[in-house]
Amino acid sequence: MSLKRILAVTTFALASAVTSSAFAHAKLQSSNPEAGSTYDTAPKQVRLKFNEALEPAFSKIKVTGPQNNDIPVAATIVDKADPTVMTAPLPALSTGEYHIQWSTMTHDGHKAKGDVTFKVK
């Protein structure tokens, strides 16, 4: 293979790698409570772990209850020691199905949102 061809292939490979990482979005890696889980005892907080650092000013957790009613949660906190984690304390929860709706923005300005559903016996 000629030197020109090797340089062209290398340049293309590097450009592809940089482009794909530049368009990455925050992805939820884990949640507590876990999606689809049923708990005997209601969780005391929501903890969401992402694959990228989050912007605290644009990170929010909202919880709705069994009758689709808003469950008051204190301010969402992005962990200063691990900015890929956001948490919010939960009030006492009764029996039923709950929906955690989250939204965030990463340091590179990409927005992401999603939800997690869990049940309390």
Can you put this structure into words, describing what you see?
The chain is of the alpha+beta class and 121 residues long. It has one domain (26-120): Immunoglobulin-like (Sandwich), CATH 2.60.40. Helix content is 17%, strand content 39%. It has one helix at residues 3-22; strands at residues 28-32, 38-39, 45-50, 60-64, 70-71, 77-78, 85-89, 96-105, 111-120. The strands form 2 sheets. Strands 2-9-8-4-5 form a 5-stranded mixed beta sheet, with no helix packed on it.
Summed up:
This protein is an alpha+beta fold and 121 residues long. The chain has one domain (26-120): Immunoglobulin-like. The chain has one helix and nine strands, in the order H-E-E-E-E-E-E-E-E-E.
Query: What is the N-to-C order of secondary-structure elements (H for helix, E for strand)?
Result: HEEEEEEEEE
Low-confidence stretches: 6-22
End-to-end Cα distance, whole Å, is 66 Å
Integer tally of domains: 1
CATH class, named Mainly Beta
Named CATH topology:
Immunoglobulin-like
CATH architecture type: Sandwich
Strand content: 35-45%
Mean pLDDT: 86
Can you tell me the overall shape?
elongated
Number of helices: 1
**Radius of gyration, whole Å:** 20 Å
For the largest beta-sheet, the strand count, sense and barrel status come to: 5 strands, mixed
